[in-house]
Design a protein that fits this description.
The protein is mainly beta. It is built from 2 helices and 11 strands. Helix content is about 10%, strand content about 60%. The longest helix has 13 residues, at about 1-15.
Length: about 210
């Protein structure tokens, strides 16, 4: 939280000498990738007890679309996706033979989690003078959907496949900036809570 407030303070102070590139009527599209990947850390915990483990995952990946109602106010949608998968070999003792030797069964286990958040966004753009730099703060609220799936030897176990989240809603507070190196194409960076802590990507303005 302290880092978010510090970043927001830097943006506010920068507004005295830098400026806003967006204006009323603009549509801005921001594809981005975020960090860190908490899902991969969770997958490493899930993999305990498995052999020949393979962990996959992708951090917060998203797409923001914003329409500026005025030079300083914008509304839009932020879609955030992330997930992980862990696969490995498990060996279970399923019984004993006539000589009292354990009978071991080996199978491949795979668990995945995919998460999707679709949020309505409200952004405030600072009224400054640069034609290339857009600095804003934003609030978002929307859905929070997770799906957990478990498979053994490629067969899904419906008893361990779960859709939904303990908290079905998500929120985001963020401060960000866009820098345009042409009239319509630039870079974006955002720092926030409720989604990627840090994200960066491209910006397309129409």
């Amino acid at each position: 939280m302290k880092k978010v407030l510090l970043f927001a303070g830097i943006l506010l102070s920068s507004a005295l000498s830098f400026g806003q590139a967006a204006e009323q009527g603009n549509i801005i599209i921001d594809p981005y990738y975020g960090f860190p990947n908490f899902g991969k850390s969770l997958a490493e915990t899930t993999a305990e007890g498995l052999a020949d483990v393979n962990i996959t995952g992708y951090g917060p990946t998203g797409l923001r679309v914003e329409y500026l109602l005025g030079d300083q106010f914008g509304i839009g949608v932020d879609a955030i996706f992330n997930g992980f998968g862990v696969e490995g070999t498990s060996r279970d003792t399923v019984g004993y033979d006539v000589n009292a030797n354990p009978v071991v069964e080996t199978y491949t286990a795979r668990a995945t989690m995919n998460r999707m958040r679709i949020q309505a966004r409200f952004n405030y753009h600072f009224d400054v003078s640069s034609p290339d730099l857009d600095i804003y703060m934003g609030l978002g609220a929307g859905t929070n959907i997770r799906k957990y799936k478990y498979e053994e030897d490629g067969v899904e176990d419906p008893d361990q496949t779960i859709s939904g989240s303990l908290i079905p809603v998500s929120f985001r507070f963020a401060a960000g900036m866009r820098y345009y190196f042409t009239d319509n194409i630039g870079l974006n960076a955002e720092l926030g809570l409720g989604g990627p802590i840090i994200s960066a990507g491209l910006s397309f303005k129409f």
